[in-house]
């Protein structure tokens, strides 16, 4: 292949990538455009690429609107996502470390028991889990939204794989210093495992913030709505204005984009590790 | 001697200190509901979780002869026929292109990965109310208008079923970046020496190298990607619910299994017996599909 042809192919590739990148960003652009426009700008017969007047007031209008409990939903989502992330990190990392490092004759069976839950699609468990949670009287409570989601086989699996590759010399040194499993874990292993905690933490946080089916099923009264349930309710109803809906969606996605951009390096590493191998 | 005996036993204790809380929680919130649900599926359980009327396989025969259930499986089949190849092709193509960049590789990866942070609810809202809004000011209809045709009512037209365009593209946008990252990781693992050897053997860069080196080397990644895509398509709920249901309820078409289950078990009738039977049937379907697919691709065979 000639040199000219090759650089043409390279240029073509870049052009295609740029075009696709623009296409992928359009939905974010629409979110901002509609969120900061007036209703008449959105519904105008001719497309305006950006509102003639950028209306930051839409944000205040959203929070002032008593028919749309957005602030409370944001507060619920924050509490749920933070608690779920913290709880999952604690429980799954301990389990992962025990499975990876503490010799026990039945450890493999325990591991397969955890792995087995990954094979059960959540599609199949939402009805029975709903049954259990309603028996416990946890419908429309934060407990009901948080506790059943804390035991992620996926997170335990990721931690186990990571701890299997943790440098043994560090733990041996701690052992020589007379530390048992517990203190070795907290003083040596955890402080040296920030990347995996960041990766799993970010993935769990995003998953929890964006979860929809479980909060929809459990959060039945308005007091326990999460952001996603609140947005879905506006989306399916006909009472709320377009600009208000879009500014609400934009507000809901903002904290996540911050988490995402800051921790992206770790998230990508976590996704890669969640692949197939091992 | 004594300490030697105590050693392993303390270890057992420590094992359970570390794994116990997790295992107990997983049992209570994973396995117990599952077993309970299997039990419920043999009972008449309207609006109750402690039924007393044993009905044998009646719930199963009822659900399997319910045409709404079988058509939900057909909906899933159509959906996965669209979304699995589309996501596979797009994310692989993106990965191949991004992988060969010398500059701005991280930038492009970030752009394509960014939708992963968006929820199905928000994406559905953008698709339903802005891009594929059935009236003239929707983006798709605006673009169509520049070209000539009349506006299309994307989500309510069943002949032809335009709603599939909306449903498939929203998921494609949301998940392509995730699989792009998996493919990029797979591409990084291909030893460079293979490409050098191919060049020595006179393989032309481009299609031949892809056909005989890259694609076979991505086999493990491909198998995992297809498996994940199918399982995730099977569990689709969020975008269907948010795109299609309106103040007047959910339309009679485009109901995948989970939407069906949602309305049976948690809708007006609250038929938990039949809902549980449906869940068990779905679990069996997905288990069989996974095993068949794994056999088909030879997953589980030890890789060298």
UniProtKB/TrEMBL annotation, chain A:
TM region(s), chain numbering: 12-32, 80-100, 112-139, 145-163, 245-263
Protein keywords: Cell membrane, Membrane, Transmembrane, Transmembrane helix, Transport
Domain ABC transmembrane type-1: 74-263
Compartments, as annotated in UniProt: Cell membrane
Classification via PROSITE patterns: ABC_TM1 (PS50928)
Membrane topology of the entry: Multi-pass membrane protein
SUPFAM superfamilies: MetI-like
Similarity comment: Belongs to the binding-protein-dependent transport system permease family.
Identification of the protein by name: Carbohydrate ABC transporter permease
Organism: Streptantibioticus rubrisoli
Organism classification: Bacteria, Bacillati, Actinomycetota, Actinomycetes, Kitasatosporales
From TrEMBL, chain B:
Compartment(s): Cell membrane
Leader sequence residues: none
TM region positions: 12-32, 73-94, 106-127, 162-185, 218-237, 272-292
UniProt membrane topology term: Multi-pass membrane protein
Domain of life (superkingdom): Bacteria
Domain ABC transmembrane type-1, residue spans: 77-293
Chief location: membrane
InterPro entries, sorted: ABC_transporter_permease, MetI-like, MetI-like_sf
Key words of the record: Cell membrane, Membrane, Transmembrane, Transmembrane helix, Transport
The protein, known as: Sugar ABC transporter permease
